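User: Reviewer 2 asked us to show a designed sequence for the structure in our supplementary figure. I'm pasting the structure tokens here. Could you produce the per-position amino acids so we can include them in the response letter?
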């Protein structure tokens, strides 16, 4: 069963840009009214003839169970996704009926292009209704009208409600549109076509001069309008609701009321038209579907124009926040709270009464030797630390400089005021250990005679001594 109206809907993606920017154009308002009427009729399926799908050879019917979106326009910065379910049984019935009527038609699985997605985006915003896409073909106008009549018979015989929509434009010079170049011939073609549709004089479409068609580039050669003419069954007049044109392009929203014959449902009362609201701006690319809070937005009840909220402190300071207990508190000082000075009656932070000074503790023993501690003599039975048998002597290296005293080296006398390092009281004398070898001069070692007169260790060293090896000058470890 058919619904009571057939629509010719433009598919220009510029309408998506207007919706995204929040522009309330006459075309968007008219589409919103048609969407309310279509929702009242509640179709179980929708058949869409796409003027953008011009197949080679026979007419095509998409028999897929699921249709994916085909984006066939670029450079606008906005696109839609209208992945919708299909109706394979209805599509197969259309193919079988066309072949039985002698029309060249075949099945296909292609997806939905802008000739389907843009009209349905405004008519059925939620892609839940099954869709059957149809194509045009480079056939004669008589074959196009025959194919439209087959579609009408199949849909009228169906038990469920089915809506037929034609998604197509009038003039469509995409080259002129991309260059933003006005084409007077395109506007003239739109006027001729709209005059023929509104008056029911469909034969005037065949009288369009070839020179005008060559310059205006009518979409699909207006074959989608011939399929619509065959679907209507007679030269019915349509209601031109809205027309929009641009540089080189033009489209119109036209409604055709079907006569109440068997197979056509009576018109349903229209639902109220929803108020126009601009599309929400998406957040960053990371969070899809989230709506950012506009600048200056406040939650209900927190406006400052009417003064502070009831029960809130007068000096609340900055914006309120939610405390851990669930209520709203102010970020300012709490009413009745004291300042952060010293608490009355609190003791001062001076030294505690009765605390002793940090001198030596009374009764603490001096750090002398512990009573009963043994002397640090050699352990009984420990071997002597003489030279290892067979070890080479540690004499001067052959050819190496002698290790004489350093010139101008200061004497290592006792520091002024330093206590003398005599033997500890009660400690053992540090004489030679019993059994230890005498520390005489090593065999072969050079004698360390007295320093030359006039030298001391108090002055600075001025370079390497003649008796020492000069320091090694390696490469610098910094940056080159």
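Assistant: Here is a per-position design you can include in the supplement:
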């Amino acid at each position: 069963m058919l619904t009571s109206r057939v629509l010719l809907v433009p598919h220009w993606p510029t309408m998506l840009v207007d919706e995204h920017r929040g522009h309330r154009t006459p075309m968007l308002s008219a589409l919103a009214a048609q969407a309310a009427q279509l929702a009242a009729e509640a179709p179980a399926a929708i058949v869409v003839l796409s003027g953008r799908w011009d197949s080679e050879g026979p007419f095509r019917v998409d028999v897929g169970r699921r249709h994916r979106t085909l984006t066939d326009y670029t450079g606008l910065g906005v696109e839609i996704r209208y992945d919708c379910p299909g109706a394979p049984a209805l599509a197969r019935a259309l193919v079988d009926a066309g072949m039985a009527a002698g029309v060249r038609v075949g099945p296909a699985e292609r997806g939905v292009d802008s000739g389907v997605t843009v009209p349905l985006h405004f008519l059925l915003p939620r892609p839940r209704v099954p869709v059957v896409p149809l194509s045009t073909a480079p056939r004669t106008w008589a074959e196009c009208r025959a194919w439209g009549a087959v579609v009408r018979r199949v849909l009228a015989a169906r038990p469920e409600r089915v809506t037929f929509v034609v998604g197509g434009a009038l003039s469509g010079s995409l080259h002129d549109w991309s260059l933003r170049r006005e084409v007077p011939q395109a506007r003239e073609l739109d006027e001729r076509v709209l005059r023929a549709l509104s008056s029911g004089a469909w034969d005037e479409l065949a009288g369009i001069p070839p020179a005008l068609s060559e310059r205006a580039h009518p979409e699909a050669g207006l074959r989608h309008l011939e399929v619509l003419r065959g679907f209507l069954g007679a030269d019915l007049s349509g209601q031109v609701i809205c027309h929009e044109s641009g540089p080189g392009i033009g489209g119109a929203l036209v409604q055709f009321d079907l006569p109440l014959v068997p197979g056509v449902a009576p018109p349903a009362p229209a639902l109220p038209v929803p108020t126009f609201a601009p599309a929400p701006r998406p957040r960053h690319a990371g969070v899809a579907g989230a709506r950012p809070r506009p600048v200056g937005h406040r939650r209900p009840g927190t406006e400052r124009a009417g003064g502070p909220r009831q029960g809130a402190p007068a000096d609340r300071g900055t914006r309120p926040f939610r405390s851990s207990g669930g209520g709203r508190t102010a970020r300012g000082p709490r009413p009745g709270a004291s300042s952060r000075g010293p608490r009355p009656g609190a003791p001062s932070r001076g030294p505690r009464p009765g605390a002793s000074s940090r001198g030596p503790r009374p009764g603490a023993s001096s750090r002398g030797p512990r009573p009963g501690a043994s002397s640090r003599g050699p352990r009984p039975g420990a071997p002597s630390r003489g030279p290892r048998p067979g070890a080479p002597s540690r004499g001067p290296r052959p050819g190496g400089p002698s290790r004489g005293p350093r010139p101008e080296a200061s004497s290592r006398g006792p520091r002024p005021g330093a206590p003398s390092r005599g033997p500890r009281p009660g400690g053992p004398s540090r004489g030679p250990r019993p059994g230890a070898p005498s520390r005489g001069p090593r065999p072969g070692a050079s004698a360390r005679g007295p320093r030359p007169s006039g030298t001391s260790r108090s002055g600075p060293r001025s370079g390497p001594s003649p008796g020492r090896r000069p320091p090694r000058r390696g490469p610098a470890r910094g940056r080159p």
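For the response letter, you might also mention the following. The mean pLDDT is 74. The two ends are 90 Å apart (CA to CA).
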